[in-house]
Design a protein that fits this description.
By secondary structure, this protein is an alpha/beta fold. The chain has helices spanning about 5-15, 35-45, 60-75, 90-100, 130-155, 185, 190-195, 200-215, 245-250, 260-270, 290-295, 295-315, and strands spanning about 25-30, 50-55, 80-85, 110, 125, 125-130, 160-165, 225-230, 280, 285. It has twelve helices and ten strands. The protein has an eight-stranded mixed sheet, sandwiched between helices. Strands 5-6 form a two-stranded antiparallel sheet. The protein is globular, with a radius of gyration of 18 Å. Bound molecules: NADP nicotinamide-adenine-dinucleotide phosphate (NAP). NADP nicotinamide-adenine-dinucleotide phosphate binds near residues 62, 89, 133, 234 and 237. One of its GO terms (molecular function) is oxidoreductase activity.
Amino acid sequence: MGVFYNHFHSQLFVQPAYPTRSFAGETVIITGSNVGLGKEAARHIARLGASKLILAVRNVSAGEEAKKDIENTTQCGRSVIEVWQLDLASYESVKAFASRASSLQRIDVLLENAGIATAQWSMAEGHERTLTVNVISTFLLALLLLPKLKSTAKQFNTEPRLTVVSSEVHGWIKFPEWNDPNVFETLDNKEKAKASFGSRYPLSKLLEVLVVREIAPKLDGSGVILNYLNPGLCRTELGREGNFALKILYAIRFARTTEVGGRTLVASAAAGRESHGKWMTDGKVNDNMLAPFPRSNDGKKASEKIWSELAAIVENIQPGVTSNL
Ligand SMILES: NC(=O)c1ccc[n+]([C@@H]2O[C@H](COP(=O)([O-])OP(=O)(O)OC[C@H]3O[C@@H](n4cnc5c(N)ncnc54)[C@H](OP(=O)(O)O)[C@@H]3O)[C@@H](O)[C@H]2O)c1
């Protein structure tokens, strides 16, 4: 079945299950949790008894507002939620956050949710900002925190989850640039990228998919579960930087509420070994719902290529970080 059929079917007929699995005793980090899906996932996880819940946010005062709101709408104790600064547009901020988080006793869930869908071209850390925030820093943070996720697995005999919030829109675009000698260089070139910049957000979600598919097997046997997911179309703040396509989709009015969309994040954050390396949609493992390209032979080659370029980029930021895999 086509990707658009799957999209409309899920939006119109599927309601992801209300999360019920306990997070008691667990330490959970959620990036981009001051608003949108991250905040609603945080609310569910607070309700489900997490011992420590870290809202990793770019704007600390917005994070404090979210913390108050979640505390006032759940039974979670006043000492459960902490607000920590994290700006994915700055590698120094990512490194500082990771260094602070590495001193935690345990990390049971790293829910990589923060992301942007901007219509405006700008650079951050030498790369186009969507690539820096959605792709490079997202995986840099994952790699920096892998040692803590692995040690949590061993020390507490548990299976920590590293969850990447991607999107079904990864299948809505073409990606001819994957054949270019240096893909990131092409995508960072404003002149070359101008004509296709409208699809930069879905492209960033495709890059996430390709990278997860390449690195998940490297984590086999590590005790860490790496999964990735599609929340479906949800009414959030994602269109705020002028993403016209998203505004039209929201206007059609079949977008999920943030609460319902947040359930899909919680499903992946709570998922077991069966989800390792797998795509989750509507809160369930379902690799058949991945777009054809990542599953094709060319998609496999693209995964290898994107990962090798990304590995070089993150090694440049933090030498040795890829050996955490
Ligand atoms: N909404 C949908 O229909 C939909 C569908 C599929 C996938 N998704 C994915 O779901 C995730 C959450 O998006 P959302 O829809 O909830 O959007 P949202 O309401 O705009 O929330 C995005 C979050 O990411 C944070 N963020 C943005 N740039 C950041 C940076 N440089 N450093 C740290 N945090 C940053 C935002 O913080 P600020 O508030 O400070 O900007 C905000 O907390 C994204 O990965 C998105 O791609 C969404």
